[in-house]
Amino acid sequence: MDTAVLDLIRRSRRVLAICHVSPDGDAIGSLLGLGWALKAMDKEVTLACADPVPVFYRYLPGQGEIVRRPEGMFDLVISLDCSDKERLGDAYREEYHALPLLNIDHHVTNQYFGTANLVDPEAASTAEIVFLLLDELGLPIDPPMAQCLLTGIVTDTRGFRTVSSTPRVLAIANRLMAAGASLPEIVGRTLDRRPLAMIRLWGQALPGAQLRGKILWAEITEAMRAEAGLTTVDDGGLVNFLLTAEEAEVAVVFSEKNGGQEVEVSFRARPGWDVAQVALSLGGGGHMLASGATVRGKLAEVREGVLALLEESLAAQERARRER
Ligand code: 5GP
Ligand code: MN
Fold first, then answer.
1. Does the model's pTM come out above 0.90?
2. Dihedrals φ, ψ of 14, to 5°?
3. Of 141, 245, 288, 295, which residue is most buried, by most CB within 10 angstroms?
């Protein structure tokens, strides 16, 4: 592992760690796992996320300490699970620009924006990279760290179902369970749990799902969310569910937000395709098989534009495959 990374951590006293906006299980899990570890190293630690911790991650030890807007002085900022600096949102303030920034991430679209970059696109989750970092620092894993880090791994692999679920991932999961993490609790709290309102929202969105070639897409309007009684923009895993359709190679969910001025786009693909580049070209990012972006514009307009781009990209990928 890069000694610059280890030196940054060893030399720091007051650390601010930040995960991405609209946090998922890997964002919160890697943030808290690292937070517990830094405390065990006797550092002063502030943990931040520009958006609130989603309710289903509130079982994680230490989550109540995560702040929206950090205050105070720091000598190191650590970014977790962010492919670009914008993903830090306004938890990353103007005055931190002079501080060293350690970028820990696993997105293939990572922009290497840190002073030091611990980026591994082969890793299934940022939590896994944090685990390897703690191993390198020789820090023993205690039960709270283990529970947080295993949450990151389990949520980003959807319970070890993704192509990123390598033997290394399972070996690390094994060590985290041996250190005190509970796999059934994590699965029960995250993957196997959603509000009834979310199921009703799916009920509204699913009849409108349409197949366009190999792309299965659906949309969630603000009116549907209001009807279901939901305030958060996340789709509760709808895009993953759509990709279970036999006819689909790629699934997309368009979610209207910010009073109809913006659309959150979520892409998923079966192995063999790449949806990271389309997301990147829209100003977002992610992985080959799971990516996303926020696009300005009206829902129907954005949907037609994005589907056209996506069709073009898939056709180019197909041509490239035939020529190989
Ligand atoms: P999801 O569809 O679950 O929101 O996101 C899938 C993947 O795409 C995640 O790895 C997430 O970090 C990434 N992603 C989603 N939205 C954005 C975005 O607006 N910007 C960037 N850089 N990545 C995104
Ligand atoms: Mn992640």
1. yes
2. -115, 110
3. 141
The DSSP secondary-structure symbol of 86 reads G
Q: Is 290's C-beta closer than 6 angstroms to any atom of ligand 1?
A: yes
| Ligand showing the shortest atom-to-Cα distance for residue 127 | 2
Kind and range of the H or E run holding 45:
strand 44-48
DSSP helix/strand/coil, 250: strand
Instruction: Please work out whether the CB of residue 265 comes within 6 Å of at least one atom of ligand 1.
Output: no
Smallest CA-to-CA distance from 20 within 99, 104, 146, 121 is with 104
Other CB atoms within 10 Å distance of the CB of residue 245: 12
Strands 116-119 and 215-220: unpaired
Closest ligand 1 atom to Cα of 20: 12
> Residue written as tokens 């300490």?
65
Q: How far is the CA of 286 from the centre of ligand 2 (A)?
A: 9
The most distant pair of C-alpha atoms in the chain lies apart, rounded to whole Å, by 57
DSSP output for 175-190: HHHHTT--HHHHHHHT
Question: How far, in Å, from the CA of 318 to the mean position of ligand 1?
Answer: 24
Q: What is the residue-level pLDDT of the chain in tens, covering all 324 positions?
A: 899 999 999 999 999 999 999 999 999 999 999 999 999 999 999 999 999 999 999 999 999 999 999 999 999 999 999 999 999 999 999 999 999 999 999 999 999 999 999 999 999 999 999 999 999 999 999 999 999 999 999 999 999 999 999 999 999 999 999 999 999 999 999 999 999 999 999 999 999 999 999 999 999 999 999 999 998 889 999 999 999 999 999 999 999 999 999 999 999 999 999 999 999 999 999 999 999 999 999 999 999 999 999 999 999 999 999 998
- Other beta carbons less than 10 A from residue 44's beta carbon: 15
